[in-house]
Design goal:
The chain has 374 residues and is α/β, with parallel strands linked by helices. The chain has 14 helices and 12 strands. It folds into 2 domains: 36-157 and 264-373, D-Maltodextrin-Binding Protein, domain 2 (3-Layer(aba) Sandwich), CATH 3.40.190; 162-260, Periplasmic binding protein-like II (D-Maltodextrin-Binding Protein, domain 2), CATH 3.40.190. 36% of the residues lie in helices and 16% in strands. Strands 2-1-3-10-4 form a 5-stranded mixed sheet, sandwiched between helices. Strands 7-6-8-5-9 form a 5-stranded mixed sheet, with helices on both faces. The longest helix is centred in the C-terminal third of the chain and has 20 residues, at 279-298. The chain is globular. The two termini are 26 Å apart.
């Protein structure tokens, strides 16, 4: 059975201290935008024992190798860009547990630094598959910047995953105190803005009374908060833990509530052209990914081992992995593209409510025909 660590205010600070390894590793990764793509190699350079059942970290093959695919797989060598965080746990289990390898795929993992960049690179063919937040994918689709299929769900937010933070000495003690002050987010009107707008509305506070600074990269957000450039910051993990550890930042409110309680955060996409060109490859990738999702949602030890197996500087220590609070990881038994249409349309509806997004947009335009779960 899947177990989670749900933390209160004091627990957030305590867990942040032991998760310093993950935080610092990710900050190093994001700062080094020129980081080479990470191959699927287990710690020590060898293939560790264990597969889907045992949850061990097996290598998925060197990034540059040309492993022949099984009959029907059109493209065995894949470049996949995903966010190196717990939203992607199912992917990492499939990668380091050898599930992609067993499906005849050689997956080259590339840490995604932003959804916007990942989408652009996917459209120009640099990436085969990406995993990122639904809001950015939907915005790109509606603007004609991409033509995407959401073929798998990745994560659903749970309590403690994302929160609004202030500094210990701040006079902002509740949401009403935010009026007239500046909240930091990392991009204009993105998922972080959406989460804040929702929680403000839940408490009867017009979002127009709060200012947003939307140009602060997440690795720099804690500095901006501590230096007084902003009064509050929206911080997802692991940046929240770094702010707690480095500056003593404290959570003002958990964003998993109201209209965005249990909110769908991440999914996996391909371009429609790619899906049509490589249907057997997509099916093989999807099957292995869903096996990883199943393990992530039911076996905590598999998540811990996969996150520990990530290559330097991203890999977690055993102590860090043991205290992580997990997301929910949706699982499907249908073919590629079988997703919960109602859950994903909810993202569009909330975007309409708080971003002025078109009410006529249907998430069905991003789903594979005939593979939509009721």
């Amino acid at each position: 059975m899947r177990t989670r660590r749900v933390r209160g205010t004091a627990g957030l600070v305590r867990a942040g201290l032991v998760r310093a390894g993950l935080v610092r590793a990710l900050l190093v990764m994001v700062a080094a935008l020129g980081l080479a793509a990470c191959g699927s190699v287990a710690p020590g350079g060898g293939a560790a024992g264990g597969g889907a059942g045992g949850g061990g970290a097996a290598g998925a093959g060197a990034a540059g190798s040309q492993t022949p695919g099984p009959a029907g797989v059109e493209k065995p060598d894949l470049k996949v860009a995903v966010v190196p965080a717990l939203d992607s746990a199912g992917f990492f289990i499939a990668l380091y547990g050898g599930l992609f390898r067993d499906a005849g795929l050689n997956v080259q993992f590339i840490p995604a630094t932003s959804s916007e960049t990942a989408i652009a690179d996917q459209e120009n063919g640099s990436y085969d598959i990406t995993g990122g937040n639904y809001v950015s994918y939907i915005q790109a689709q509606a603007a004609g910047q991409a033509n995407l299929d959401i073929f798998a769900e990745g994560s659903v937010m749970q309590p403690g995953d994302q929160a609004l933070y202030t500094m210990p000495g701040s006079h902002i003690k509740n949401l009403a105190d935010l009026e007239g002050h500046t909240v930091g987010i990392n991009a204009p009107r993105n998922i972080l803005y959406l989460l804040v707008a929702s929680v403000l509305a839940e408490h009867g506070i017009p979002v127009s009374t709060v200012h947003f600074r939307d140009d602060i990269p997440l690795p720099e957000m804690a500095d901006a908060l501590a230096s007084g450039q902003i009064s509050a910051a929206v911080l997802p993990e692991p940046f929240a833990s770094d702010a707690e550890l480095s500056y003593g930042a404290v959570p003002l409110v958990d964003l998993d509530q109201g209209a965005t309680a249990s909110f769908p955060v991440q999914g996996y996409v391909v371009t429609k052209q790619w899906a049509a060109r490589y249907p057997h490859t997509l099916a093989a990738f999807y099957k292995a990914l869903e096996q990883g999702q199943q393990l992530a949602d039911t076996n905590r030890s598999d998540v811990e081992k996969a996150m520990e197996a990530m290559p330097a500087p991203l890999g977690l220590t055993h102590q860090t992995a043991a205290v992580m609070a997990l997301d929910q990881y949706p699982v499907s038994s249908g073919p590629a593209g079988t997703v919960d249409t109602i859950r994903l349309q909810r993202v569009v509806d909330v975007m309409h409510q708080f971003l002025g997004f078109s009410a006529s947009f249907s998430v069905g335009s991003m789903l594979m025909t005939g593979n939509q779960a009721p």
